[in-house]
Amino acid sequence: MKLKDLLIEKKKDDTIQVRGLGTYDYKSLSKKVGKMVDDLSKRNRKGNHTGLGKRQLSTLAAMWEALSDYEENQLMIKLRSLITEGKGQVFVQNGLLWLAWGEGSGQTVKIERKGFLTDKRGHKDYSAVVTGVAKWAKTAKPIKKKKNKDGSTVFLFKIPSYSNETNLDIWGGDEKPKKILYLLVSIGKVNVISVFHSKGEAMSWIGHTA
What we know:
8-stranded mixed β-sheet, 2 domains, two-stranded antiparallel sheet, 27% strand, alpha+beta
């Protein structure tokens, strides 16, 4: 399933609250943003950057942000459904951690040089992908599971790492992973994930989460 197929499932009459501007339905808000962007593009091509102030640009920014939040939420709803059905996949591809629902479709985050990622908003290592991975972890089969005294639960998974971008064996293709990595997922009040190159490293980290 491709990303565009999920986006089509948005309801045209869904209401969206735009900060400081009121409520719109998805169709009208998307159309309004499109017209504003087209106008800016035409002005830019003509070299005409006058007549627009912070108010107009702030309005566009608020509408764009509202659409972005809505679409991200819709994708997460659909992703949760796919994960529940056992269709979600987590893997690494050229330095990106994928939470995917089809070849080339899903959420990604760069993991190189990252000690860990969290879904705590405002944290320097925040990533929205973490929330989805945590939901996936609750239905996937770990190789290790540990309950901590603080109420959090740590899961350890083997995940494939690929160098090619297509024909992956997890989607029924012939491309095998170049290596196996270890994904640690800590689920609690704040969710945390980390990817390790060896099981020993991951198990050592688990030992420090009690």
